[in-house]
Design goal:
Shape: globular
Number of helices: 4
Distance between the termini: 14 Å
Oligomer: single chain
Number of domains: 1
Helix content: 25-40%
Order of helices and strands: HHHEEEEH
């Protein structure tokens, strides 16, 4: 219930701030996917004792998902885990990496359109964003923590 409320607020906020219908939808999708990845990291840690080494470990193919493992936990759709600059999901691609210490992680939602917001989150669960079109110079843990959080 809380996740649905969060996604609804994000979608409303981005839709109000964006005069372009499609970009508002794509940016809402980018923020919601980052939030989903945070939730998936928490589920993964609960099941396997630590956070994932990368985005691929959160997903898996249909065959691999017959029996989820540490390498393919099947918590996230393949469209997300296979996203890249050449193969985006709603104009974004996503990364998940270990943070600066063992119990930390960093998630980034990076837009292909330079006018869109960049989204990120860390193990604190707060989804953060850049100003529209601002981008980010680094996809580090510290760079994410320096961005403002989406208000609850």
């Amino acid at each position: 219930m809380i996740v649905l409320f969060f996604v609804a607020i994000v979608m409303i906020n981005l839709r109000v701030e964006s005069p372009h219908g499609k970009s508002g939808h794509e940016q809402s999708s980018g923020a919601a996917t980052v939030h989903t990845l945070v939730s998936s990291e928490i589920q993964y840690k609960s099941a396997y004792g630590d956070y994932t080494p990368d985005l691929k470990a959160l997903g898996g193919s249909a065959d691999q998902c017959q029996k989820p493992t540490r390498a393919h936990a099947c918590l996230v759709d393949e469209v997300v885990t296979n996203s890249s600059a050449a193969n985006p999901k709603s104009s974004y691609y996503f990364t998940v990496n270990a943070g600066p210490s063992a119990n930390t992680f960093i998630v980034w939602g990076i837009p292909l359109d330079s006018r869109y917001r960049v989204f990120c989150a860390t193990d604190d669960g707060m989804v953060r964003f850049s100003a529209p079109g601002a981008g980010v110079a680094s996809t580090s843990y510290a760079a994410c923590k320096a961005l403002p959080a989406i208000p609850n």
